[in-house]
């Protein structure tokens, strides 16, 4: 049985998040990728080079340009006949689009799954990652979103054919108005090898930046934040790590002035090495950290930055 | 204009749940239950839109066992006008919830449907999108700002790289992100008044919706515990450990 993976892109570049879904999907069968976009031939060209992809479906229409779920859904439903599985990576794009497709296929969706056990059995986290459920389904069609950090990114080396498919009619239920993206030279949070994350204890946006940026610069790290730090506007919303923000699993995660509420640890506890810096020796973050330092972060972080530089 | 708000009764967000010894489910007997935090935000947004004169009536809907009535009373105390309780003890999948909500929406004909972006128990993040699909309506998921303007609703959404704004035709389905607003505290007089507000009961059978499950949970397990770490005494020691023990720098 084959799998249709829906590519995430901005018409210029394929989002690397999609590569994780390809790896996961390869455990289920032959992998095809759908590229729905506006002037998106370059995306199809990138997609055909992914290892493990055997066919790229390219649907080009002006109304696919902004990845609106209302527009892409009818196209996927039209193409779904040949596939048992429809999938995407569980990013904001995948989370927004896939359930809409599932409902119109009358198919169950298994969200944010972390393991493919066999062709009908999957494991996924519930209760902010405090439990993992094993779910089975014999449904004729299954819609899946894959947790990126649980599957390696597929590499290049493929040579799939590109097949152009006809666009579905425009729905015009919604209209794109504007997009305001955070400007940053840093790596994307979910793809970064090192993440430096700060919490409310940083005290202000100025101190957040003054302390964390020099440390992050050493590694070319991404900046993360707890919800408290985001609410206090020390960091932009899309830097939030946790149950309701992003899930990251870098090689090295610095939790600085973060108490470690379950809603936060849900997003980072699969990191390879966790370093916690907190003045409260009883902070729950120390129960998930590999290395902890109890003390004033305003002393420790600059010391650490200096020590790492030399 | 009428708004419909869907609310779910879940384990309180402060509770650390434990898995039952037989691995059949998490143990939620005798733990504190509350309204799903994202749904509180959705109710608050509906009430604010009503206070701003943009909508005229708020209908709160909940699906579940008898005690879901308490969650509906909370929504009424926050400012919803009346409630519909679809009573069932069955375990509902998001698709079944979406079908039940569609059946209620078909009767009520709301212009705006507000839900939380995800429930903190199943963490599925599916119901609002599925409901929009079944209604053939526009969707504004992960909303951090909502503005009703004539025949459209402008929704600013939290996306991975920042924010984006969409204009949706009405009727539209919106799912609330935490940053949409700060829900109000419910005052005692409002709790008393909420007891007198109408609460209608119905069932999946009354609504003619098939809620039979399409998936089967075969096991629930604790996450793999992280190896207990150590506390180091100095920055120098930390750097040494990261270099020579963890070998990550």
Automatic annotation (TrEMBL), chain A:
The keyword Electron transport applies. Residues 3-180 form the Electron transfer flavoprotein alpha/beta-subunit N-terminal domain. One of its GO terms (biological process) is fatty acid beta-oxidation using acyl-CoA dehydrogenase. Binds 1 FAD per dimer. GO terms for molecular function: electron transfer activity; flavin adenine dinucleotide binding. Keywords: Electron transport, FAD, Flavoprotein, Transport. Pfam families: ETF, ETF_alpha. Transmembrane segments: none annotated. FAD binds at residues 200, 226-227, 240-244, 257-264, 278. Its cofactor is FAD. Heterodimer of an alpha and a beta subunit. The electron transfer flavoprotein serves as a specific electron acceptor for other dehydrogenases. It transfers the electrons to the main respiratory chain via ETF-ubiquinone oxidoreductase (ETF dehydrogenase). This is Electron transfer flavoprotein subunit alpha.
